[in-house]
Design goal:
The protein has 238 residues and is mainly alpha-helical. It is 75% helix and 0% strand. Helix 2 (21-37) runs parallel beside helix 4 (55-66), helix 2 (21-37) packs parallel to helix 10 (146-159) and helix 12 (188-203) packs antiparallel against helix 13. Keywords: Cell membrane, Membrane, Transmembrane, Transmembrane helix, Transport. The chain crosses the membrane at residues 20-40, 46-65, 72-96, 137-160, 167-185, 191-224. It is a multi-pass membrane protein.
């Protein structure tokens, strides 16, 4: 972790994830604003971001809390939205699973959509990177993201309802995820999963407690897996 190459990869991680700064600031500010509108105070809002550190799950929980949904449904829905983190962890294990326990624990806490997307893309691009270099790059990739997430959550909570609607901070949510998933459409399985998830999400929009998103996510994963199996069988026959 102290070698010249590790430091170089850390700096490269910062550079590669820097474009996300453009959306993480309004994204986190919006969460702070909405959290205070939902009845949380500034300390509770900041603690929410520090403990959970998962934007999509946090927004899901807030929306359900505002709808007076039972606590069990809030927890289940938030956990379901955050299940992608388990898949992220499984995907990262071959790359940084041999790192010391404290480094793996730190990376686990700091695994967010942006650090995962940037990290995996780099690890696949340079398979000969050492484990310390991968850890350094991963931590570099999250360095511009997490402090800003905390900081502007706090700013949004302080501003609360003083933020005018004309700022349209809610644009950051879809743009953030579009910026992350667009480069990941590398195979037919990825495209199939995305298209099925979108279609099912639209059809299930009326399902109570926003459970339609969970249904759509499961349908998308199943479609992607089946497409990949079909492609593998097709390749084996040729």
């Amino acid at each position: 972790m102290t070698s010249t190459s590790s430091k170089s990869y850390y700096r490269q991680g910062i550079i590669d994830s820097s474009p996300f700064i453009l959306v993480i600031i309004p994204f986190s500010t919006l969460f702070g604003v909405l959290a205070t509108e939902a009845g949380l105070n500034v300390i509770q809002t900041l603690a929410f971001s520090i403990v959970v550190i998962a934007g999509a799950a946090q927004f899901t929980a807030l929306q359900l809390m505002q709808e007076d949904v039972p606590t069990v449904i809030v927890l289940v829905s938030s956990l379901a939205v955050n299940l992608r983190m388990a898949m992220y962890s499984a995907s990262l294990t071959p790359y940084i699973g041999a790192a010391p326990l404290w480094q793996r624990a730190l990376c686990a806490y700091l695994t967010v959509d942006q650090s995962y997307v940037v990290g995996v893309a780099k690890f696949e691009e340079e398979p000969k990177m050492s484990v310390p270099e991968r850890v350094s790059y991963f931590l570099g990739a999250v360095t511009p993201i997490v402090p800003l997430w905390y900081g502007f959550t706090f700013v949004g909570a302080l501003l609360g309802t003083q933020v005018p609607e004309s700022w349209a901070l809610d644009f950051a949510l879809p743009i953030t995820f579009l910026a992350m998933i667009a480069p990941m459409f590398r195979t037919a399985a990825h495209v199939a999963a995305a298209l099925v998830a979108v279609a099912v999400a639209l059809l299930a929009a009326g399902v109570p407690y926003s459970l339609g998103l969970i249904i759509a996510g499961i349908a998308g994963m199943m479609a992607g897996a089946q497409t990949e199996l079909w492609l593998e069988k097709k390749a084996a026959r040729t």
